C-alpha cells in the first residue's frame, strides 16, 4: 500500500463483520453474502464464498500443495449493506433513538429507513481474554489483602 492510499483510510466504518452485503461491482456483481473479515488497513472486506481466485500453494512440511480457491478481498466501495426490509442495497446512516441508543438505519434512494441490526457475531471475541496469570498481573493474595483498616487506622498516610 502506497503512502497516498494510507491518507484515504476510512476512519468511521459503517460496514461491520457479519453484515449481509451485496456486491455492486466486479465479477460477482449482484450477489449477496456475509462479511467474513474486515481489513481496515487496506479499506477492504472479505465476503464468504465470493470473489474466488485460484491460489497456487507449494507443498511443504505438514501441508499438501496444489491449486486452491480462496476468497480475495474486495474494496469496501464495491459492496453495500442489504436493506433488511426491501432486500436491496442501501447506504448506512446513524440515528439516535428516544432512549439515547445509537442504531444504524438504511438510507438512500428506495431505502426503507428501517433499523439495520448489529451482527450477533460481533459479541464473540476474536482473541479470547487471557486466563493464565501473566508476569505483570498482581497476585490474588495481594489483591485480597486490606490496605486500610478503619478501626485501627493502619494504612493511613501521614498528612
Automatic annotation (TrEMBL):
Keyword check for Iron: no
SMART domains in alphabetical order: KOW
Domain of life of the native organism: Eukaryota
A GO term, aspect molecular function: RNA binding
Keyword hit for Magnesium: no
GO cellular component: ribonucleoprotein complex; ribosome
InterPro entries: KOW, Rib_uL2_dom2, Ribosomal_uL24, Ribosomal_uL24_C, Ribosomal_uL24_CS, Ribosomal_uL24_KOW, Translation_prot_SH3-like_sf
UniProtKB keywords: Ribonucleoprotein, Ribosomal protein
Domain (KOW) ranges: 14-41
GO biological process terms on file: translation
A Pfam family annotated for this UniProt entry: ribosomal_L24
Annotated NCBIfam families: rplX_bact
Family, similarity comment: Belongs to the universal ribosomal protein uL24 family.
The protein's name: KOW domain-containing protein
Biological source species: Escallonia herrerae
Lineage: Eukaryota, Viridiplantae, Streptophyta, Embryophyta, Tracheophyta
